[in-house]
Amino acid sequence: MSDVMRPQPFEVLLRWILVELEARREIFGIPEELFFRPSPGDPFAVEDFLGSRLDTPIGPAAGPHTQMAQNIVAAWLSGGRFIELKTVQILDEIEVPRPCIDMEDEGYNVEWSQELRLEQSAWEYIKAWALIHILRRSLGFEDRPFGTIFNMSVGYDLKGITSPRMVRFMDRLQDASAELTEIKGVLKERFPRFADIEIPPRIVNSVTLSTMHGCPPDEIEQIAAYLLQERKLHTFVKLNPTLLGKEEVERILHDDLGFTEIEVPEEAFAHDLQYEEALGIIRRLQAVAREEGLVFGVKLSNTLPVRNPQRTASWGGDVHVRPCPLSHHHEPLLEAGPGSGWRPHRLLRRGRGRGERGGDPFVRRPPGDHGLGPPETGGIFPHAPVLGEHPEGDGAPGSPEPR
Question: What's the predicted TM-score (pTM) here?
Answer without folding.
Answer: 0.80
